[in-house]
Amino acid sequence: MSEVFEGYERQYCELSASLSRKCTSAGLLDGEQKKQKLSEIKTGLEDAEALIRKMDLEARSLQPNVKAMLLAKLREYKSDLNNLKTEVKRITSPNANQSA
């Protein structure tokens, strides 16, 4: 497997876990604290998207047998990222605190 891909993958997994924790804590905050946490989360989401793009480019440059395996992993990461985005939308909706 590609060391470059593995490096991006490690960064993505750490970032994803951090974003998940931040989403949980943001759901418990309100006012300025919540805005600040959401700003951190949005920046993190952009970083995560960039890492996924880099992993995608790296995976596509590899041998077909390795490429297929890495692209399957990438689909999982994209799904994970979409779940995080959905969670952020839920947190930012006006009635998020009432549904928690």
UniProtKB/TrEMBL annotation:
Which processes are annotated in GO (biological process)? Answer: intracellular protein transport; vesicle fusion
Where found in the cell? Endomembrane system
Q: Which residues form the Vesicle transport v-SNARE N-terminal domain?
A: 1-91
Q: Which GO terms describe its cellular component?
A: endoplasmic reticulum membrane; ER to Golgi transport vesicle membrane; Golgi apparatus; late endosome membrane; SNARE complex
Q: Which domain of life is it from?
A: Eukaryota
What keywords are annotated for this sequence in UniProt?
Coiled coil, Membrane, Protein transport, Transmembrane, Transmembrane helix, Transport
Q: Name one GO molecular function term.
A: SNARE binding
Q: How does it sit in the membrane?
A: Single-pass type IV membrane protein
Q: So what family is this one in?
A: Belongs to the VTI1 family.
Q: What PANTHER family does its record include? A: VESICLE TRANSPORT THROUGH INTERACTION WITH T-SNARES HOMOLOG 1A (PTHR21230:SF26), VESICLE TRANSPORT V-SNARE PROTEIN VTI1-RELATED (PTHR21230)
What is this protein called in UniProt? Answer: Vesicle transport v-SNARE N-terminal domain-containing protein
Species of origin: Colocasia esculenta (Wild taro)
